[in-house]
Amino acid sequence: MRLLQNELFRRSSEKRPVEEDPRQLHLFNEAEVSAEEKPVTEEIEVPAHTRQKPRRKPLPEHLPRVEVIHDIAEEEKICACGTTLSRIGEEVSEKLDIIPARVQVIRTIRPKYACKGCEGVESEGGAVRIAEPPPEMIPKGIATAGTLAYVATAKYADGTPLYRLSKILERYGIEIPRSTMASWMVMAGDRCRLIMEMLQRELKSGVLINCDETPVQVLFEPGRANTTYSYMWVFRGGDPQKPVVLFHYAPTRSGDVPREILEGYQGYLQTDAFSAYDQFDRPGSRIVLIGCMAHVRRNFVKVIDARGKGAKKTGSAEVALEYIRKLYAIEKVARERKLTPDEIRALRKKEAEPILKEFKAWMKGRLPQTPPKGLLGKALSYALNHWHKLIRYLEDGRIPIDNNMAENAIRPFVVGRKNWLFNGHPNGAKAAATLYSLIETAKACGLEPYQYLRYLFERLPFARSEEDHLALLPQMLTPEQLTRSLQ
């Protein structure tokens, strides 16, 4: 019951306070740490110090500025001696002003032309001439590229359900049913099919792919009840500087999904311990499966959470977490020093490998003394059963210690799911996978989602060749290009 309550209500962070007792590092060989033993304390004198006054972060330079001058009255510009005051400077302060979304109607006018001299005569010259309508994402629809980008960003980047967005537009006097907006998203997603194929190829161009999956409820799935869960998969890979975040909807959680997506890929694959990935952990596989230390830590955190707030005991779970904390401390040092992959590998070889060997030996000694079906027994068994995958991150400095990059990539979808709860149709789920892919990849490449989607939707109807489509990938664009396109 305590564990269930913690799963429902506790904070999601797994960070733990570092023990203040410096002797704890020498107690790893003990099965338990005495609960009655109190740390030795020593009074120290803290010297006085000065604290910097916090400074407000300046407003972005790219925002337009509107100058408002507050001047003194003209009669106050005359000194008591009769001399006119001279301006010697000014004081400037900047405040942020937000104007709600500007809604406008774009009227496309196509003049018609005809020859009066050929009137009534059947000839090619007598036909009415008019310019072809410009290509659009949704031909004959009322939604421009900006409208589609706005709706997609609101739902998939900000987690706003379409029925709420419909209410927001009503405040502007615009009545657009959520069913209409849903169909817009499906059509927009379908038009981006070739872009998605290119992103999938780009995903497999790097040396590492992180993968994760989460359930999603989809209605009107053929042959399935509405209460049956489907799954949204996420893959993060490609160039580490401009990565691809690829979402893929599937009605199943079977290993066929990652096998299809990763066909032809050769490199590292980092995941949790879900059995669908075991197919890659075999001799001769072109894919090297990497484990996740965060999942090991999570299991030991559950042991502590199940004790309840009143428990004062310090034992095996804390010892395990201290080992893991030291491993993460090494990774933090590597990040702060901005080490190269070769330097990270050398650092891990020197400092992390001995800790891992000691950690494994401690767990193997502790496992026979622990009930296998208890939380601690499960945590120990999980770590030891997947140990060969957990230590593979030592091989290459480009591999992280955990799969948090995939979990962070899928988090926006999980947050949005809490608001819109389910997808109304499989087509909507596929469109969601496409638009989440575009938005999260744009964010990972440093692009603002709305600006990128608007840029994409304006130019995609004119793309004809593969080069045209390739130029629209987030990896090919810069924030400056998007900003100029909106001016």
TrEMBL record:
Domain named Transposase IS66 zinc-finger binding is located at 76-119
Pfam family for this entry, one:
LZ_Tnp_IS66
Looking at the record, the residues that make up the Transposase IS66 central domain are 140-430
Question: Which residues does the UniProt record annotate as the domain Transposase IS66 C-terminal?
Answer: 437-474
Q: Where is this region: Disordered?
A: 1-59
| InterPro entries named among the record's database cross-references | IS66_C (IPR039552), Transposase-related (IPR052344), Transposase_IS66_central (IPR004291), Transposase_TnpC_homeodom (IPR024463), Znf_dom_IS66 (IPR024474)
Q: Which residues cross the membrane?
A: none
Ranges for domain Transposase TnpC homeodomain come to 2-68
Positions with biased composition (Basic and acidic residues): 8-24
The name on file for this protein is Transposase
Source organism: Desulforhabdus amnigena
